[in-house]
Specification:
Elements (H helix, E strand, L loop, with lengths): L4 H13 L47 H7 L2 H4 L1 H21 L5 E13 L9 E14 L6 H67 L5 H35 L26 H7 L1 H22 L4 E12 L11 E5 L3 E3 L7 H67 L5 H35 L12 H4 L15
Length: about 500
């Protein structure tokens, strides 16, 4: 059977509110001016045909089954995500711990005394005696000023912020994985180009060597062809190193040792998908980091009430019920029962050197800082979206121009080679044309990889399909508790 602590909280709070109140300001979400539209949204393509929203598994927008498989492993394997999940559970237990302060504390005590009474005319019974005692002591501090209620409110807000931070971290790691994945695919395309280039340069070198042996070329042309071939091979080796590092990074993101993951060569010959658009106002509800910052503001607001309640007196009530006997056999009998109410104690701080006043002002300053942090987080979110939108447009235009340049460079190389064979130009012209053609092909592939990476960053900037409604509610944030968990004994 499960018992929700909120039922106890409602009962006890009703009693407390008859004599007290909740101090401190009620929370109001800080205002944040929101633009009507994104500045860089011109030309932002809407996803077709009907997928006009980013879903939780946002990586499926890219239609890559291997990426789908990798992303599915992140949540349950990445160590940083597992750490954040444990921190969220810790925050839930803080909520439970603070809620327990609304309930009385019961302690069971038992004692045994063996003593010898002093002899004399005023002693009723002389000699060695035993004294057995068993009692239940109950103590309770009514939440007259709402200090405990505000602490519970603050801890609930902190737990909700922890849940949002967990999602923000999960989204960040998923985006990093996708970014590394597309960079790796881009490197595979670059390696393919370099392998083709090495093969072509090797053939050119062989031709130059043959022509040198026939006395038709100077040794300088052979040396230049050899140098160019070696340079292309060095570039291919550098690509291998970069690819290996990306593969290792992906393995660690998946919670694996780098030696446990090997990804086969892949191609990157398609276009990045269009990302569904959103309104600027929706961004405040879509980004988990913004939600976490807003919950931190609410927590700081509640702490002001906690600090304010410290100015008022505390009242402690207690009661005891037990048995006392000189014989263990008669201990638990009605005749040996005793009870007491009290002591009831009240305490009010009248001088502390300004400590309470400083703590109250500190809570206000902490709230002001959290509001500024929230607003800055919102601004950063808008900036990231605007940056990604601008990059989406500019990179697409650059891709078109660069592909035209690459095609023109290939045509120029063919013409230069024809003129070289005809003997009208030197081999230096061929080298220059080959270098330009190679650089343009590599740049085009690198740019396509950047476009995929930017699409990933845009989805991340839009919250990755997350919604503020996914935050755990007050009832959910403290978890389900069995009645045995209200006892002191640990129950697994």
């Amino acid at each position: 059977m499960h018992i929700r602590l909120n039922r106890f909280r409602l009962l006890i709070s009703t009693v407390a509110l008859q004599a007290g109140c909740t101090l401190g300001p009620d929370y109001v979400r800080p205002e944040m001016p929101v633009p009507a539209e994104f500045k860089e949204a011109e030309g932002w393509k809407q996803a077709q045909p009907s997928d006009d929203r980013i879903h939780g598994e946002w990586w499926r927008l890219f239609g890559d089954s291997r990426l789908d498989t990798l992303e599915a492993q992140v949540a349950g394997a990445n160590q940083s995500v597992l750490q954040a999940e444990a921190q969220y559970r810790q925050a839930q237990y803080w909520v439970q711990s603070s809620q327990s302060s609304l309930l009385p504390v019961a302690k069971l005590t038992a004692s045994f005394n063996r003593f010898e009474a002093a002899t004399g005319q005023n002693v009723a019974v002389a000699g060695v005696r035993n004294l057995f005692n068993q009692a239940v002591n109950i103590a309770w501090e009514p939440d007259l000023w709402g200090r405990v209620s505000r602490e519970i409110e603050s801890n609930i807000d902190i737990a909700q912020a922890s849940a949002a931070n967990l999602q923000a971290l999960r989204l960040s790691i998923q985006a990093t994985l996708a970014d590394n994945y597309f960079q790796l695919k881009s490197l595979d395309e670059q390696k393919k180009i370099l392998n083709e280039t090495v093969e072509s340069f090797a053939k050119t070198l062989k031709i130059n060597q043959d022509r040198y042996q026939a006395g038709m070329l100077g040794k300088n042309d052979v040396a230049q062809a050899q140098a160019q071939l070696d340079s292309a091979r060095a570039q291919a080796v550098a690509v291998d190193l970069h690819r290996a590092k990306l593969e290792h990074a992906i393995a660690v993101l998946l919670g694996k040792n780098p030696s446990e993951l090997s990804l086969a060569t892949m191609s990157l010959d398609n276009e990045p998908p269009p990302v569904p658009s959103v309104l600027p106002s929706e961004l405040l509800e879509r980004r988990p980091d913004i939600a976490a910052a807003e919950r931190n503001v609410a927590a700081a607001n509640a702490k002001i009430g906690v600090a304010k309640a410290a100015y008022f007196p505390t009242i402690n009530l207690s009661a005891t019920n037990g048995f006392q006997s000189t014989n263990a056999d008669t201990l638990f009998t009605a005749a040996r029962r005793y009870w007491s109410l009290g002591p009831a104690a009240a305490a009010l701080t009248i001088f502390d050197g300004g400590r309470l006043n400083a703590q109250y002002k500190q809570a206000i300053a902490d709230y002001d800082a959290s509001v500024a942090a929230y607003r800055q987080t919102v601004l950063n979110g808008f900036q990231e979206v605007e940056d990604s939108l601008a990059a989406t447009r500019v990179l697409a235009e650059q891709q078109q121009v660069l592909e035209q340049a690459a095609a023109a460079a290939e045509q120029a190389l063919l013409l230069t080679q024809d003129r070289y064979r005809a003997g009208t130009i030197s081999y230096l012209n061929v080298l220059a044309s080959q270098t330009v053609a190679l650089n343009n092909r590599l740049a085009a592939v690198q740019l396509r990889g950047q476009r995929f990476s930017n699409a990933v960053q845009l989805v991340k900037a839009l919250g990755g399909g997350w919604q503020e409604g996914q935050l755990p509610t007050e009832d959910q944030v403290d978890g389900d508790r069995k009645w045995t968990e209200y006892l002191i004994f640990p129950v697994e």
